[in-house]
Write a structure and sequence with these properties.
flat; about 20% strand; about 425 residues
C-alpha cells in the first residue's frame, strides 16, 4: 500500500507518529524510537491576546499557537515554557475527562502545536497511531478519526487500546495490565493482543488522589506550600526553622485556575521526591526504622520526612479500591481457562507505578491473593521511563513492525468506507 505522496507503507521509512494522550500529559514522537520526543502537560492556558502582531511584523518562533487576529480573540499557551509564565487573565483548561478526550477544540490546538513545534513537519506526511483508554466511547473514537483524516489529512491512521500496547512494550501478547495513572488506576486483561473490555475494572484512586493526600498531610503538619513562581529570594536557615523569604511582585489578575495548577505541580514534586510505598501494610515501627528523606520547600523551609512518607501512599492499596483488588476483580471476570496465563503475566505501568516500592508491594499483596493453582508473575520494567511511557513505547514498537503496515486505515479506505472502517480494523 502506498500513500498519496509516494511513501511505501510496506517499507521501513514511513515516519509514523505515535500519540499517547493521558490525563496528566500527552506523549508524542516517532515510531521506532525508545522514548517520546515530547511529554506535554495535558492542560492549555487560554488567555486574552495581549499583543497582536501585524501582518508585516516577524513573529518570534515561540510555543504559542498564533491564532489571534482581533482584539477580543484568545491566545493558547501550550507546554511548560509558556504555561508556567504568570499572565493576567490566563485560565488553565484541560481537554481530558475521565480518561478520554472531551474538549475537541482545545485538543486541536494541542495537535497543531505537536505538528508545528514538536514534529516540525506537515501532518499529511505521517501516518498517526493513537492510543485510547479501554472505555473510550464510539463517538469519541469516530471524532478522532474524522479529525485526523479531514483536518490533518493524515495518510493513514490507527487506534489501539493503551493496555494492549503496555503489554507489547513488556513483550507480552497476553497479560493483565495494571495502569496506575493520574486520575485513576485500572486493571485490564489482554488476551492474544485484544483487550477484554467487559472484564476491565478501574477506581478513582490515582496520582491526583495522592497529591490531595499530600496537601492534607502538610496542612496538618502546618507546613506552608508556596508556589515557586511567587518567591523572589530566600535565606539559608536551619532545619525546621521558620522560613525567611521575599515574595515577588506579581502581575494583577492572575486566575485562580492557573494558581491552583502551579500549586498542584509543587505538590506533585513533593510526592515524587518524598513518597514511598512500604513493602507490607503500614506499620509505625517498621516505617520508623527506615532513614528519613530530606525535602526543601520553595520558601526555604526544610526537614526530614520519616514514617509519614509511607503513610501517605497507603491509600493506593486500600482494600476495595487499591490495585491488588482491581487485579483480582479483573482476573475473576475472565474465563477460567485464561486465568492461569493472566496471573502469570501481571504487567505494571503508568506514572503511579514509578513510586518507590510500588511494584514490590503489588507483587507481595498479589502473592497473598492469587489462587494457589496459578503461578503468579509480575513484571515492571526497572527504568521509570519504561513504566511511565509503556503505552507509547508499545505503540512505537507496533507501528514499526513490517507485518503491521497492512493494518493501517488509509485515507483512501476512510474515503470509501467512512467511520465504519474503525470498528472493522480497530476493535
Amino acid at each position: 500500500m502506498s500513500g498519496p505522496n509516494g511513501m511505501l507503507y510496506g517499507g521501513d521509512e514511513i515516519g509514523a507518529l505515535v500519540f499517547d494522550p493521558g490525563h496528566h500529559s500527552l506523549r508524542v514522537g516517532y515510531a521506532q524510537e525508545d522514548t517520546p520526543k515530547a511529554d506535554i502537560p495535558a492542560v492549555i492556558g487560554v488567555g486574552p491576546a495581549t499583543h497582536i502582531p501585524d501582518a508585516e511584523e516577524k513573529v518570534p518562533d515561540g510555543n504559542i499557537t498564533q491564532t489571534a487576529t482581533k482584539k477580543d480573540e484568545l491566545r493558547y499557551y501550550i507546554d511548560v515554557t509558556e504555561l508556567h509564565v504568570p499572565r493576567p487573565g490566563m485560565e488553565v483548561q484541560t481537554y481530558m475527562k475521565d480518561g478520554q478526550i472531551d474538549n475537541w477544540d482545545l485538543f486541536e490546538k494541542m495537535l497543531d502545536y505537536c505538528y508545528s513545534k514538536v514534529i516540525r513537519s506537515p501532518s499529511e506526511h505521517h501516518p498517526a497511531l493513537f492510543t485510547e483508554a479501554v472505555w473510550t466511547t464510539r463517538p469519541a473514537r469516530e471524532k478522532l478519526a474524522e479529525l485526523l483524516f479531514e483536518k490533518y489529512q493524515a495518510p493513514a491512521f490507527f487506534l489501539v487500546k493503551n493496555a494492549v500496547l503496555a503489554a507489547f512494550a513488556n513483550g507480552k501478547s497476553t497479560a493483565l495490565v495494571v495502569d496506575a495513572g493520574a486520575s485513576q488506576t485500572s486493571a485490564v486483561p489482554v488476551i492474544d493482543g485484544y483487550a477484554l473490555v467487559s472484564a476491565a475494572v478501574r477506581s478513582q484512586i490515582g496520582g491526583d488522589h495522592l497529591v490531595n493526600q499530600a496537601k492534607t498531610m502538610l496542612n496538618n503538619m502546618h507546613i506552608q506550600m508556596l508556589p515557586i513562581y511567587s518567591i523572589q529570594s530566600k535565606e539559608v536557615i536551619r532545619e525546621r526553622e521558620r522560613a525567611r523569604y521575599t515574595l515577588k511582585t506579581l502581575p494583577a489578575g492572575l486566575t485562580q485556575s492557573w494558581q491552583q495548577y502551579m500549586l498542584k505541580r509543587q505538590y506533585e514534586d513533593f510526592v515524587h521526591c518524598v513518597a514511598q510505598v512500604s513493602e507490607t501494610a503500614y506499620d509505625d515501627r517498621t516505617a520508623a526504622s527506615v532513614p528519613g528523606l530530606h525535602y526543601e520547600f520553595p520558601g526555604g523551609y526544610h526537614q526530614d520526612f520519616g514514617p509519614e512518607r509511607f503513610k501517605l501512599t497507603e491509600c493506593l492499596f486500600e482494600q476495595s479500591l487499591g490495585a491488588p483488588h482491581l487485579v483480582c476483580a479483573a482476573a475473576g471476570a475472565c474465563d477460567a481457562d485464561a486465568r492461569a496465563a493472566l496471573w502469570g503475566a501481571v504487567v505494571a505501568c503508568g506514572g503511579g507505578a514509578c513510586a518507590a516500592g510500588w511494584p514490590e508491594r503489588l507483587a507481595k499483596e498479589l502473592a497473598g491473593r492469587a489462587p494457589s493453582a496459578h503461578r503468579l508473575k509480575t513484571h515492571a520494567p526497572p527504568a521509570h521511563n519504561e513504566r511511565r511511557f509503556a503505552a507509547w513505547i508499545g505503540g512505537s514498537i507496533l507501528a514499526s513492525i513490517g507485518s503491521f503496515q497492512q493494518m493501517w486505515i488509509s485515507s483512501q479506505e476512510y474515503d470509501e468506507g467512512g467511520k465504519g472502517q474503525l470498528e472493522r480494523k480497530c476493535p
